[in-house]
Design brief:
Pfam families: Epimerase. By secondary structure, the chain is of the alpha/beta class. Helices cover 38% and strands 18% of the residues. The protein has two domains: 197 residues, NAD(P)-binding Rossmann-like Domain (Rossmann fold); 87 residues, UDP-galactose 4-epimerase, domain 1.
Length: 314
């Protein structure tokens, strides 16, 4: 298959593109930061990296019309709610429209984009039950509302033009090189692995991490099919408090210095942390590695960067 990945040199794209190349796809990666795709050189001619700006329709159209892809995947985004409104709208909303419109004009059979768990908003709106894709969205940050609107854009294109466009709502993606978005659960692992102390406001703050290798696999599987059964899929992940995560880290690094300012008060402030991903599991057969193993993997990735030997798990 031919696949165009926009925003492909980022945190998730760096894991996704090697998976696509390994299954034999020819990948055109367009990113405003193509230098970060230097690691794709080992993948040979299967992966081409181009500089391009998703906010510029001509640039998206040029890449998509030349590549004639079977799949278009859009990962280009700003993770956070700190942008001036016009800049956020241009990248997150117009950028998404540029992808959908180019896919329409070029007849791309299936377009895939990243939504987010952020659309659902705080868990307190749902009580202690798992949030499904059909639940009302309560997210009200710039990022969440942009994602909610992206889901509407996808539906509008699908209904008006009969296109297949699939949104994936990743949970709190984790990995040693994560820089943007929710990072407390990342720092709870990476800072002790670097020998640094770390302090968080609430021991009972809840997260639902999913390792970046697992979310890359989700995008790969969804992109393998031409017409998924649903328009939106929750990735799900492992529900855990930062306090529990700290204990898991201490199991591997007994000397880890992880502190909390308060034991309680975080749970009610947490985003959604109970997520039903049965759609994804039933249709695509995804199975995530035990989270404990992923924590050890991250610790050992950080240790490898520092030239330290790996810690052995059980
Ligand atoms: N990482 C997470 O925890 C998480 C969770 C939920 C949803 N998501 C979503 O998944 C997608 C990918 O996330 P990520 O973690 O890989 O993010 P990232 O920021 O690491 O990657 C985004 C990529 O988009 C590129 N980009 C930015 N502006 C661009 C532009 N104008 N034109 C072309 N490329 C541009 C960046 O250079 C970067 O390579 C995003 O839509 C994000 O909102 C991520």
């Amino acid at each position: 298959m031919r696949i165009v990945v926009i925003g492909g040199t980022g945190f998730i794209g760096r894991r996704l593109i090697p998976l696509l190349a390994a299954r034999g796809d020819s990948v055109t990666c367009m990113d405003i930061n193509p230098a970060a795709g230097a690691a794709f050189a080992v993948l040979g001619e299967r992966v081409r990296v181009l500089r391009g700006d998703v906010t510029q329709f001509d640039e998206v159209m040029t890449v998509v019309s030349e590549a004639k892809p079977d799949r278009l995947i859009n990962l280009a985004y700003h993770i956070g709610s700190d942008l001036p409104p016009r800049v956020a709208t241009k990248l997150n909303v117009l950028g998404m429209d540029n992808c959908f419109e180019a896919a329409r004009l070029c007849g791309v059979p299936h377009t895939i984009y990243a939504s987010s768990l952020a659309v659902s908003g705080p868990q307190r709106h749902f009580g202690e039950r798992a949030v499904t894709e059909e639940d009302r969205c309560y997210g009200d940050s710039q990022y969440a509302v942009n994602k909610i609107f992206n889901e509407f854009q996808a539906r509008d294109y699908a209904e008006k033009y009969g296109m297949t466009i699939t949104g994936i709502r990743p949970a709190n993606v984790t990995g040693p090189d994560k820089l943007f978005g929710s990072v407390d659960h990342v720092h709870c692992i990476t800072e002790p692995a670097r020998g640094n102390p770390v302090t968080f406001p609430y021991r009972d703050a809840m997260r639902i991490p999913i390792h970046v290798d697992d979310i890359a696999e989700v995008f790969a599987r969804v992109s393998a099919v031409e017409k998924p059964r649903h328009r939106i899929y929750n990735s799900g992940g492992t529900t855990i408090s930062l306090g529990e995560l700290a204990e898991m880290v201490r199991g591997f690094l007994p000397e880890a210095r992880i502190q909390f300012e308060q034991d309680t008060g975080g749970r009610e402030r947490s985003g959604n942390y109970l997520i039903d991903n049965s759609r994804l599991v039933e249709e695509f057969g995804v199975q995530y590695a035990p989270f404990r193993r992923r924590v050890l993997q991250i610790i050992n990735d950080v240790r490898a960067e520092r030239g330290a030997p790996p810690i052995r798990g059980d």
